[in-house]
Design a protein that fits this description.
Blueprint lengths: L1 E4 L12 E3 L3 E7 L4 E8 L14 E6 L2 E12 L3 E8 L4 H4 L2 E4 L6 H9 L5 E3 L10 E4 L1 H6 L6 H4 L3 E5 L2 E5 L5 E7 L7 E6 L6 E6 L12 E2 L11 E6 L18 H17 L7 E7 H4 L19 E6 L4 E13 L4 E8 L10 H10 L3 H15 L6 E2 H21 L7 E6 L8 E6 L2 E5 L13 E4 L2 E4 L2 E2 L14 E2 L2 E3 L4 E8 L5 E8 L10 E7 L5 E6 L4 E3 L36 E6 L8 E8 L5 E6 L45 H8 L3 E3 L11 E3 L2 H11 L6 E4 L3 E4 L5 H30 L2
Parallel strand pairs: 9-12, 13-19, 15-17, 22-28
Antiparallel strand pairs: 1-2, 1-5, 3-4, 3-20, 4-7, 5-6, 6-7, 8-10, 11-12, 14-18, 15-16, 18-21, 19-20, 20-21, 23-24, 24-25, 25-26, 26-27, 29-30, 30-31, 31-32, 32-33, 33-34, 34-35, 36-37, 37-38, 39-40, 41-42
Length: 763
């Protein structure tokens, strides 16, 4: 059943105002692009057609149950009325406004929740990827899939399904229900396109600095290479594959050319197995209704129930190649309640703009010069204030729309002999008092008359060379360059060396500070450009300075927390101290450095706290999220070791019997282990030719000796990345046993020697 609701009726949970009986009603849905419902209805005697008006809402069956569509275009002739409608969710293009929404390091669901918060719309997403985006002064539709870098689709990805006032953006729309199609035959009702322009069955890989595979065949072949008549060869550069000598400290690298070439082979094979570059691109345009008339229809019958985004396997039996592809477009017959046609092919990301609907309607409505002029007037009204000044906040989004609309207007408009048009209201009491001149040379706007009353004071002009105005007003102005010789911009004084603005700030205690924001170049010991400086009334030294490279210099920092929100690959907070500087907690509060595993929303916090204990001694203490002692924190790890640790006292290690199990005294087997290990002298490679002599053991020898004598020991460990490690503390006990054993043996030998001497002297 197809119903219609009047523009004023918003009770969509109940029946509409009237039931329609259209002759045609189809809905075409394109993946991540336009959804359009098209309806044709006769001019019936009951007058049902009269409800089909601009702004009315149609409820019609779709491949995903009943859906609501808002009418945006109506055409009427003698026999029928034709309407076009879009999903009601796209109303959000007009009735939502995101003043300042900033989803930060969140997954897809949380981002949608923040974008749609406070609106009548909802969203759901299974995307676990975390990302960050800023949305200011735009609607929700633009934020979700607009032509901006920070749109949801660009930052989080995903594929869109509309469901009335809800939007579903999952990693992949639809599902895989075992649909298999065989292509390669000319079947009535199916058009197939095969594209091999991006096909690759042989990769010639190159690493950073041009390193390649060796031999006469420096390439990697696809398992499908013999399925095609020729080898489709492509050079692929893997710039992230680097030798250690070419990489930065924090970059993954390979110590040898052999290891590097193994990685080139691995990544090449992944391009075949995961990216499917060795498979031709297939597009099948299928008319399901036509297929009903052919004998092969049984192979395609399951397409009647296919949904947008569903996956199908396209099989080319001749080449022995199967390719998984998606339903990227579906046309659904809302009257018969079945899929009419489907396009299967490679998904190509798309976007829509705020002007998608308005441009289409404008192209239909523009019929003469008067409408052309009125559309230009509306555009000017949008970007100007009542006093004729430009609202710069609106300019950026409208310029692109202007270009699209004007191209449509050139096609639809009729050529005129008139070269210019003047609009004016000469009544000073009128709300529309002012003048607008439009001609081939540009646009002029005025709100006041000249002193003699004979002409208008034209203060704002738009020409082919640019915009001229006494004043620009807006929340922000975006451009390539702003030039000015003198004067001020937003209160900033223009100087010979830059720009400067000063504020006087008075604290409750009466202390006065000057806050000076200046953009200028300074030379000195730091050779930095300071952007912001804060001065006190005492002397000329600044209290705080922020440089153009992001450094902050100040005398003292007091805060509850410092949170690093940097998006760079290696964010960090640097604290530089000399013997006169301190980093401390206020009053009795300890200074704490906190680290978080899993993002700011995680509860897995750890603290490294410095405080003064009762003996006035400084203590560095690891705590958990509850502020209690945590003994599970490590200082370093196998691949991130400390070079040296200097101590005034020996380290204290937990040795509580209550925390140990399987306790037993050492026995003679330990002596075999001690006999088996061999001490060494050595030098460390990284310390150079003048390195001092060091003493110790070789971990592999220790591990081998232990396994042959007493078993697996904790003193020895191996890490794939960091190599071998030893805990020298573990040797104290067995060496102590060996020493005690030798002392006892010496005492016994001395006693035997003493008794032997006594016996000899008495003989």
């Amino acid at each position: 059943m197809i119903q219609i609701y009047s523009p004023q009726n918003t009770d969509f949970n109940n029946n509409g105002n009237i039931v329609l009986f259209p002759t045609e009603c189809t809905m075409t849905a394109n993946l991540n692009a336009d959804w359009v419902l098209s309806l044709k209805h006769i001019i019936d005697e009951q007058g049902r057609w009269k409800f089909i008006v601009d702004g009315a809402v149609i409820k019609a069956p779709s491949f995903n149950d009943d859906q609501l569509f808002r009418i945006y275009n109506v055409e009427l002739n003698e026999t029928e009325i034709i309407a076009m409608a879009y999903p009601i969710f796209l109303d959000a293009c007009n009735d939502t406004f995101l003043l300042d929404v900033r989803p930060t390091l969140v997954n897809g669901q949380t981002a949608l929740n923040q974008i749609l918060k406070g609106t009548k719309y909802t969203g759901s997403s299974n995307i676990i990827k975390t990302a960050t985006a800023y949305y200011q002064n735009q609607n929700a539709i633009s934020a979700i899939n607009g032509d901006i870098d920070q749109s949801f689709i660009n930052r989080w990805g995903g594929q869109i399904i509309y469901d009335n006032f809800n939007i579903i953006i999952n990693q992949q729309a639809g599902g895989d229900y075992g649909v298999t199609l065989r292509y390669g035959k000319n079947i009535l009702g199916m058009t197939q396109k095969i594209d091999r322009s991006n096909l690759c069955t042989r990769i010639v890989p190159q690493a950073y600095n041009g390193y390649m595979l060796t031999g006469n065949e420096p390439w990697v072949d696809s398992p499908l290479i013999n399925n095609y008549p020729v080898a489709y060869t492509r050079v692929v550069k893997f710039e992230d594959v680097k030798l250690t000598q070419d990489a930065q400290d924090d970059e993954e690298s390979f110590p040898t050319l052999a290891a590097l070439r193994q990685e080139l082979v691995r990544k090449s094979k992944l391009m075949f197995s995961e990216e499917n570059i060795d498979k031709e691109e297939i597009t099948l345009d299928i008319d399901v209704e036509l297929l009903e008339n052919v004998s092969e229809y049984s192979s395609f019958a399951q397409l009647e129930k296919i949904s947008l985004g569903d996956t199908a396997v396209c099989l080319n039996e001749k080449l022995g190649i199967s390719v998984k592809t998606q339903a990227i477009s579906i046309t659904y017959d809302c009257i018969k309640e079945k899929t009419q046609s489907v396009i299967l092919g490679s998904f190509q990301p798309n976007y829509f703009t705020n002007n998608t609907l308005s441009v289409e309607k404008a192209t239909t409505d523009i019929k003469n010069t008067e409408n052309l002029v009125n559309n230009n007037l509306e555009l000017i009204r949008q970007i100007t204030n009542s006093d004729g000044t430009i609202n710069a906040e609106k300019v950026q989004g409208i310029l692109n729309a202007v270009n699209v609309q004007l191209k449509s207007q050139i096609t639809a408009s009729e050529k005129q002999n008139i070269r210019a048009v003047l609009f004016e209201d000469l009544d000073p009491a009128s709300e529309l008092y002012g003048a607008l001149s439009i001609g081939t040379l540009g646009i002029q706007i005025a709100k006041t008359r000249t002193p003699d009353g004979r002409d208008w004071e034209w203060k704002t002009a738009i020409t082919a060379n640019g915009v001229v105005s006494d004043e620009l007003v807006g929340q922000y102005i975006r451009g390539i360059a702003i030039e000015a010789d003198k004067g001020n911009i937003a209160g900033f004084e223009i100087t010979d060396t830059g720009m400067k603005k000063t504020w006087d700030v008075k604290e409750p205690n009466g202390q006065t500070y000057k806050i000076i924001c200046e953009i200028s170049s300074e030379t000195g010991s730091s050779t930095q450009n300071y952007i912001i400086k804060i001065y006190s009334t005492v002397g000329s030294e600044y209290i705080l300075a922020i440089s153009d490279d992001g450094n902050i210099e100040c005398n003292e920092v007091r805060c509850e927390s410092i949170i690093n929100r940097s998006t760079i690959s290696s964010p960090r907070i640097n604290v530089n101290m000399d013997n006169t500087s301190d980093m401390y907690g206020y009053n009795s509060t300890p200074f704490a450095v906190r680290a978080c595993n899993g993002g700011l929303s995680s509860e897995r916090w750890r603290q490294l706290r410095w405080y003064i204990n009762n003996s006035n001694a400084g203590v560095l203490q690891p705590l958990d999220q509850n502020g209690t002692e945590n003994s599970t924190c490590d200082l370093g790890e196998p691949s991130h070791k400390w070079s040296r640790i200097y101590l005034d006292n020996s380290p204290i290690v937990t040795s509580d019997p209550n925390k140990k199990k399987n306790q037993k005294l050492l026995d003679f087997s330990v002596l075999d282990f001690i006999k088996a290990i061999q001490p060494y002298s050595y030098n460390l490679k990284h310390e150079g030719n003048t390195a001092p002599i060091r003493f110790g053991f070789m971990a592999p020898d220790i591990d081998s000796a232990a396994k042959k004598t007493i078993g697996n020991i904790a003193a020895c460990s191996y890490d794939n990345e960091a190599g071998w490690s030893l805990s020298y503390e573990e040797f104290i006990a067995p060496l102590t046993y060996a020493v005690k054993y030798l002392l006892n043996k010496i005492e016994n030998l001395e006693e035997e020697l003493k008794n032997a001497s006594y016996s000899k002297s008495n003989a």
